[in-house]
Amino acid sequence: MSGRVDLVLRRVRPFGGAEVDVAISGGLICAIGERLAVSGPEVDGGGHMLLPGLHDHHIHLLATAAARQSLSLKGVSDGAAVAARLRGTAAKLLPGGWLRVIDYDERAAGLPDAAMLDGWVADRPVRMLDRTGALWVLNSAALALIDDAGGWPEGAERDAAGALTGRFWRCDDWLRTRLPKGAGPDLGALSRDMTRLGVTGVTDTGAGNGPGEAALFEAALADRVLLQRLLLMGREDMPEGTGYRRGPLKILVDERDPPDPDALAARMAAAHVSGRAVAVHCATATELALALAGFEAAGTVSGDRIEHGNVVPQGAVVELRRLGLTVSVQPGFVVSRGDRWLAQVDPGDQGDLLPLARLAAAGVPMIGGSDGPYGPIDPWAGMRAAVSRRTAAGVVLGGGEALSPEAALGLWLAEAGAPFARREVVVGAAADLILIDGDMADLLADFDADRVVMTLIDGRICWPCR
């Protein structure tokens, strides 16, 4: 090949192989070979390894961006310490500024409500998210500022007298649209940090994503605030996009309020008829059983998937394989939640916790994600956890369920929507690429994020920033 191209990567080694040049044009790899006779801007790869960029197959972008601007209570398990942290942070805010708190652990002072928050901070609006991400709690000052036009959602808890308790169960999307106008989460800072980690694509798995969220992401992509390619899950009314790809219908199954089985199956079947796959949130064995029953009744199509698979009994593994379902796993949970699981889950059931090797051996396709902000967004940390199975305290959680380093890397190299297809560095492939310092053996030995030397998305250098 000869002629002018958009970019030439000289002296790079795809997957650690022989040193070649890679030419890029129109966002695609257009030529690979030794000493390509092409002209255009050049980058000397210095013999670094070239890999496809990583894809985070399960993340909540808006919540992750917002969490970075919040007070985290992770590791705080005493009520007095919680109060001190809230009061100290609130004192630094501008008058009237909202205090956003995340990672509250109910072991500190029990399940909070508005009255409890008022006792900690009453002179400014406070909204606090529990460690599971399922419960928002607002103090009285915050409740007074909420736009309740159209009424309160089903997840708004009330006491015996019918008064709001301040607890909102799984109301993220409703709450986001009712908060007073103000500075939103900084998607740009999050996106740039993900490029530093080598993440070139993401799947936002918000169950409440609809036209409003789609428009927000469309604008962020058009303005290059959000740099990664985006597969967007959401509700039935989420439109097709130009900047993003519309993904599966996301269904949140919650064992606290289980869906009617027939209604669940009907919703799945309707999605299939409309041409969409279905992704179901399943963090517990009960939720997984409900989802499997729904898929059994509705049938399955390519792209149907289970989100999390934190608890997968052996019988469910067989059903997952038979139904042809993909499981989106978050190995980082071994670190962030493993010690809690070991303390709370019966020893006889601990073998069912994130059984990655069991799923792999059964031929159940898996893809890797972070579940940010509820898990670490660093994909390399997730790979390390998949291999070591070590909790934050250093305890091995189900060592027999560890993956090989090659399989762990493969979780993040899977094609979005096609888990059996690993993205490759070949002519015609999207120029979403990362340069890695070291050989493949070095990378598989430590999965160190600092090995990412450069990240390209759509043929453009996004990291380091120029």
UniProtKB/TrEMBL annotation:
Residue ranges constituting the Amidohydrolase domain according to the UniProt record: 43-461
GO molecular function annotations of the record: hydrolase activity, acting on carbon-nitrogen (but not peptide) bonds
Assigned keywords, A-Z: Hydrolase
Pfam family, one: Amidohydro_3
Cross-referenced SUPFAM superfamilies: Composite domain of metallo-dependent hydrolases (SSF51338), Metallo-dependent hydrolases (SSF51556)
InterPro entries from the UniProt entry: Amidohydro_3, Metal-dep_hydrolase_composite, Metal_Hydrolase
Annotated PANTHER family: IMIDAZOLONEPROPIONASE, PROTEIN LONG AFTER FAR-RED 3
UniProt-recorded name of the protein: Amidohydrolase family protein
Source organism (scientific name): Sphingomonas lacunae
Lineage, opening ranks: Bacteria, Pseudomonadati, Pseudomonadota, Alphaproteobacteria, Sphingomonadales
